């Protein structure tokens, strides 16, 4: 459904970017089913009131978060380390009282909650994807299969009591009805509890031309000012923010009941910095659009020249965001004949829209290509370190953030 009014405050939304016809980013079809995917128009706008950046045409959650949803957080060593640190941070700061409860929205395969489960912390994951929930349960994580909203929050509170922490990482921005999350938090939070949101940050996306962070699941691109406005709209208060390195640039937002926590000096400083950056201004998005068009031109030109010169090229990382890159740029098997990926659920399938075959990353050296296009650039240090034999053999990595370059 296409909208021209803000889903949060009802103000007019100013269109600012159109990335064309795009498929469901995590629906990797079997080769026999290629061509039957669901497509939509990937365009975003800026609310003229609360400044929330949001998609204009949003797919229903049933199209994106299916029972066989293939993404698994635990496949990344970087994410495993990050969520272990999150669990420790919560234990030291928020989960210090008698028998506290933590509820995670979009718990996936339990990568964060398993640390708390092993420490004996009362917990519950809420996730609509059956396969991910089963994986988490095998690691001792309690999971409720379904979506988090006010109704499920009421059921959880009746059965478990209030939550000291509600946590959501790379999840909250996926929910078109953002009010359902905040209303659920109001229903479930303890009086002095906190809602902790970790998500990709608009300021980082715009500053470094990370246009592939825009795809179907990211209904919203969060900025500090827009999250503060949304929290206020639904009866809560943003009290702190913290930049994170996760996913190539993210932000942690800490939300509480009004008046229960003193907003930090860091929050005030970062709001002032956002004002200086002018994140909601048309000029910022004009520069962003020009930057992504340059990247698309340079990337297709490089791949075309390499293939014409007889070089072998492969992709690495069948990521959600690679759907935006390949479909916007028109990169198919003729330029990138295959993509290596370590997720078993994706192997043997093809990429959404452009239908590039996906192969087990364990076969990357059979033999190495001359060049590898790193779609999973947010895990570049981890992947390049793990695949150091590729570079030692003379292979070169192709990266396209913040510009097209070889490593």
UniProtKB/TrEMBL annotation:
GO biological process, one term: methylation
Stretches assigned to the C-methyltransferase domain: 246-402
Pfam families membership: Methyltransf_13, Methyltransf_14, Methyltransf_23
InterPro entries: Methyltransf_Zn-bd_dom_put (IPR013630), Methyltransf_Zn-bd_dom_put_sf (IPR038576), MeTrfase_14 (IPR013691), SAM-dependent_MTases_sf (IPR029063)
Domain of life: Bacteria
Coiled coil: none
Ranges of residues in domain Methyltransferase putative zinc binding: 6-65
Gene3D superfamilies on file: 6.10.250.3100, Methyltransferase, zinc-binding domain, NAD(P)-binding Rossmann-like Domain, Vaccinia Virus protein VP39
Sorted UniProt keywords: Methyltransferase, Transferase
GO molecular function ontology, one term from the record: methyltransferase activity
Entries under PANTHER family matching the protein: BLL5978 PROTEIN, TRANS-ACONITATE 2-METHYLTRANSFERASE-RELATED
Protein name: Class I SAM-dependent methyltransferase
Organism for this UniProt entry: Paractinoplanes ovalisporus
């Amino acid at each position: 459904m296409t909208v021209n009014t803000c889903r949060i405050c009802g103000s007019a939304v100013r269109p600012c970017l159109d990335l064309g016809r795009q498929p469901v980013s995590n629906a990797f079809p079997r080769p026999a089913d290629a061509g039957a995917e669901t497509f939509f128009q990937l365009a975003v706008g800026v609310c003229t009131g609360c400044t929330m950046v949001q998609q204009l045409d949003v797919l229903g959650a049933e199209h994106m978060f299916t029972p066989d949803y293939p993404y698994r957080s635990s496949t990344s060593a970087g994410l495993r380390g990050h969520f272990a640190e999150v669990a420790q941070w919560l234990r030291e700061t928020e989960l210090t009282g008698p028998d506290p409860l933590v509820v995670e929205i979009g718990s996936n395969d339990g990568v964060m909650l398993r640390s708390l489960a092993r420490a004996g912390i009362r917990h519950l994951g809420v996730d609509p994807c059956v396969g991910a929930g089963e994986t988490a349960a095998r690691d001792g994580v309690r999971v409720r299969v379904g979506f988090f909203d006010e109704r499920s929050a009421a059921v959880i509170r009746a059965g478990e009591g209030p939550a000291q922490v509600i946590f959501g990482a790379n999840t909250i921005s996926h929910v078109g009805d953002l009010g359902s999350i905040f209303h659920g938090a109001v229903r479930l939070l303890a009086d002095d509890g906190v809602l902790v949101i970790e998500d990709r940050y608009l300021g980082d996306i715009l500053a470094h031309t990370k246009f592939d962070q825009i795809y179907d699941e990211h209904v919203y691109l969060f900025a500090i000012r827009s999250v503060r406005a949304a929290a206020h709209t639904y009866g809560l208060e943003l009290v702190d923010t913290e930049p994170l390195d996760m996913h190539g640039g993210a932000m942690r937002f800490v939300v509480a009941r009004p008046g229960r926590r003193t907003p930090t000096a860091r929050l005030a400083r970062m709001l002032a910095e956002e004002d200086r950056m002018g994140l909601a201004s048309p000029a910022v998005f004009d520069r962003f659009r020009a930057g992504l068009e340059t990247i698309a031109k340079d990337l297709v030109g490089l791949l075309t020249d390499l293939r014409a010169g007889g070089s072998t090229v492969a992709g690495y990382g069948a990521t959600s965001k690679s759907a935006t890159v390949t479909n916007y740029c028109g990169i198919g098997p003729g330029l990138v004949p295959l993509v290596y990926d370590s997720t078993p659920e994706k192997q043997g399938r093809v990429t959404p829209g452009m239908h590039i075959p996906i192969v087990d990353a364990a076969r990357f050296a059979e033999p190495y290509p001359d060049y590898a296009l790193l779609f999973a650039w947010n895990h570049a240090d981890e992947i390049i370190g793990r695949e150091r034999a590729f570079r030692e053999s003379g292979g070169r990595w192709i990266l396209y953030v913040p510009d097209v370059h070889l490593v």
